């Protein structure tokens, strides 16, 4: 942040929610410039699998995955 004050942080490592929060707090950046991938990857996988099953283009499938996944979910 010191050398690139206009930076945007994208967090894509697990546990993403916690790491995104810590990155935001430690960086001092506005919350709009610290982004966590969250369940975006899971949602993309879901849309792809749904499109394969239904034999339609993935761009025609819409849906989102919400909540935790992996070791932190249970």
Whole-angstrom Rg: 16 Å
The biggest sheet amounts to: 2 strands, parallel
How would you spell out the order of helices and strands? EHEH
Mean pLDDT, nearest integer?
A: 89
Low-confidence stretches: none
| Distance linking N and C termini | 35 Å
Q: Count every beta strand, where a strand is a DSSP E run of 2 or more residues.
A: 2
Category from helices, strands and their pairing:
mainly alpha
Number of helix segments?
A: 2
Helical residue percent band = 25-40%
Query: What is the overall silhouette?
Result: elongated
In spatial order, strands of the major sheet run 1-2
Count structural domains.
2
Estimated share of beta-strand residues: 5-15%
Keywords: NAD, Oxidoreductase
Enzyme class: oxidoreductase
EC number: 1.1.1.27
Protein name: L-lactate dehydrogenase
Per-chain topology:
Blueprint: E1 9-11, H1 16-27, E2 34-36, H2 40-54
Parallel strand pairs: 1-2
Question: What is the structure about, briefly put?
Answer:
With about 70 residues, the protein is mainly α.
Features:
mainly alpha, single chain, 74 residues, 36% helix, 2 strands, two-stranded parallel ribbon
